[in-house]
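Side project, low priority. Logging it here so it doesn't get lost.
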Amino acid sequence: MGAFGIPALIRWLRGRAADRDDYRLWNWTIALGAALLLWLPWLPSFLIQSRRVYDEFWIPRPTLQSVLETWRDFGSAFGPGGRYLVPLAIAFAALVVLGAWGLRRRPALLALLLLLLVVPFAGELLVSLRRPIFYTRTLIWTSVPFYLLLAAGLLQLRFRPLIALATLALVLLNTGSLVGYYRHYEPEGWRDAANWMAPQVQPGDLVLFNAGWVQIPFGYYYRRVGAPVEFHGLPADLFDRGILEPKMTYADTKRLDQLIAGRRRVWLVYSHNWYTDPQNIIPAYLRSSLQPVKAQEFNGLVIYLFRRS
């Protein structure tokens, strides 16, 4: 082949590799476009939901800590916080920057990955200046480009012992997070609450919820073990007001009077009241109208029983 043939062969092989990379990137772009087309029928529902969220929702305004926690959760959800939060966030950011540097010779792929990762973060933060929408769950899908950049960053460490050490650190970190999650995380106690309340329900009882949507998890478990009973949300039943989580006001006690009129016993399932009933109007009003009988606390909620004296 000769001295001049070898460089020509190398250039030809590099060109074919670049063509394969472009072909794969083009296929990925087409796949993303197809996914978008398949999603388009959901666009009307998305717009309606977005309007409802914009009108009223519970998400607090993002802070530096909440942004760092989201970034930390991408690398290891339920990972260490406190004094470890900033170092972990910096470590993940450094690996992502290294990964971006390693992909600099493939600008189309790098641009796509950064577009999928940075734009959603920046977009939610910008919108949150007017209406808070920044929330980790809404950004989960951007973890795909994050992991690709993270992997590219690990490869940029060059030395195999260093790559192995960094990978081992990530594995140990996520193992610790999983152990902590399964050992210490407690879901809200809807099943236990339904099992406790079901045998005590009597015909004619009324069950009230300070947040209408709370009927969904409670009812899911109650219907399996309890007799039929009338459910109502306060200050309105689910979706009746066209906003997700209406707040209880003193004006809404008129409806509460109508609901409890003639009732001998009334149950109150009280949860997430920090947002839907921050003034604790509902239990206070029921205590003034009915006699408190019992209260039982579960993780994330309290169940009260009142009766007419």
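Brief comment: The two ends are 104 Å apart (CA to CA).
Revisit when time allows.
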